[in-house]
Amino acid sequence: MDDLLPLVLLHQDWSLQDPTPSSTPYVEIIEQPKQRGMRFRYKCEGRSAGSIPGERSTDTTKTHPTIKINNYTGPGKVRISLVTKDAPHRPHPHELVGKDCKDGYYEAELSPERNIHSFQNLGIQCVKKRELDEAVAQRIRTNNNPFNVPLDNQKGDYDLNAVRLCFQVWVQDPVGTGHLVPLPLVVSQPIYDNRAPNTAELKICRVNRNSGSCLGGDEIFLLCDKVQKEDIEVRFFKDSWEAKGSFSQADVHRQVAIVFKTPPYQDQALREPVTVQMQLRRPSDKEVSEAMEFRYLPDEGDFHRIEEKRKRTRDTFKNFVQKAPFSVVVPESRSPRRIAVPVRTAVPKPSGLTGMPGTMGQLPPLQKPQATAQHPSLPFTGPSRAPPPPAPQLGLSTVNLEEFSNLGISSRAQPPPPAPGAEPNFDPFFHLPFEGGGDPTAMELGALLEDTTYTSLESINTTEFRQLLSQGSSTEGADGHSMLLTYPESITRLMSSQRGVVGVTGEEPQ
């Protein structure tokens, strides 16, 4: 016996056997109702409550809640009603409306040819808070209590923003009695009213920008569906990294707009843009919105991306030149443009003087040369007084006297100043200005003198002039007449020829 036991254990098959499938019918929900995105309608709105969409429903492909009856094909009956979200699942005050709906629930016969059944045109109609007790009493009267919750337990608060679908299915008795046998109850996932911000679907409608600096701090305006300012956050994530946007409750505007600042990226030394995901999240139920892309850009100090624009423009021009069907000639570098600047040219000086008055505007200022003739010194008679000071020397520009040779003036050098104690020189008194405002250089000196005897300063008799300056007693001149208080004859002739009038003595010039 002991020898046979190892042989039995050796040949024993210990592999796992698939269990025999059960033949008992049961209900399975293969398409859950969509949790969010549907609005509960009031009866007073006077419009259809819509249709409950399926979980995989899209804008192009519509689906609806669907069940499958496993291990059974044949006639049957189904009832769908609304129950509370939390257990025990009490009858909900809201009711189902649509085709084949009455007293707040849906009931219809099942097709015997198939075991998958989809339910369309089911809407949810909500009741007002003041009608809450009446609606619950109606559920009890119509025996709409799938879980047979006692009446005492049905009192209390109801979550009017969330419901569940309860599927009750009856099939024929397999024994063949013809009676309908109920199958185990099945409830769907919660359906939330999209009108309530604490249960509504989270959705990002629009943002003003989808990129920012890797350092964070960029201000973003986000438009969304209704949210609760104390129960919402903006989440950025990529792989294992996660961060939240920075904002306060005051930055949530009327539950539909959020102004926040982006968080810094984990790697702030980026060399190229990085794409992350951005979404809304509700902390209370961990509900999130559909994520959208957000790009973190390297921080290069060029906030306006000027260098990137220049490079893009340069590359675009190169591509245009390469693809151009015509030859492009690049002009050679031009020399800088010359700008004409007006220059005032100096007026050339004339080589000599002319007798034309119109040409005197171009002459430089003249300095009258002093007489070079050295007159004999005469004894000075008169009252004892200091000699008159010498005439001031004018600091005029130097003039080449050879240019004035036609005036008959000697161009010899000016004599040196007299030695101390010498007799005063009266030559400066001969340099008297002409009256009448005319320029004395505008005409020749010979034209001023009618007598050819007076063609130079040396020919003037200065004796009479000296007597006049001495202011002494009467002195007789060459002709024996008294010359006191009279001008010398030479000065009178000069003045008469300049003014063209009769002299001071009353005699006509000879």
Give a concise summary.
This protein is an alpha+beta fold and 510 residues long.
Question: How would you sum up this structure, described in words?
Answer:
Residues 22-198 form the RHD domain. The chain is of the alpha+beta class. Among the domains are: 26-192, Rel homology domain (RHD), DNA-binding domain (Immunoglobulin-like, Sandwich); 204-297, Immunoglobulin-like; 429-510, no CATH class. The chain is built from six helices and 23 strands. It has helices spanning 4-10, 132-141, 306-323, 445-448, 463-470, 489-499, and strands at residues 26-31, 41-42, 66-70, 76-83, 95-98, 101-102, 105-110, 116-118, 122-126, 162-172, 180-182, 186-187, 191-192, 204-207, 211-213, 219-224, 233-238, 241-244, 252-253, 257-261, 274-282, 287-288, 292-297. The strands form five sheets. Strands 4, 6, 7, 10, 11, 12 and 13 form a seven-stranded antiparallel sheet that branches. Strands 15, 17, 18, 21, 22 and 23 form a six-stranded mixed sheet that branches. Strand 19 (252-253) and strand 20 (257-261) form a beta hairpin. Mean pLDDT is 74; it is low at 1-21, 352-363, 371-384, 434-438, 440-452 and 501-506.
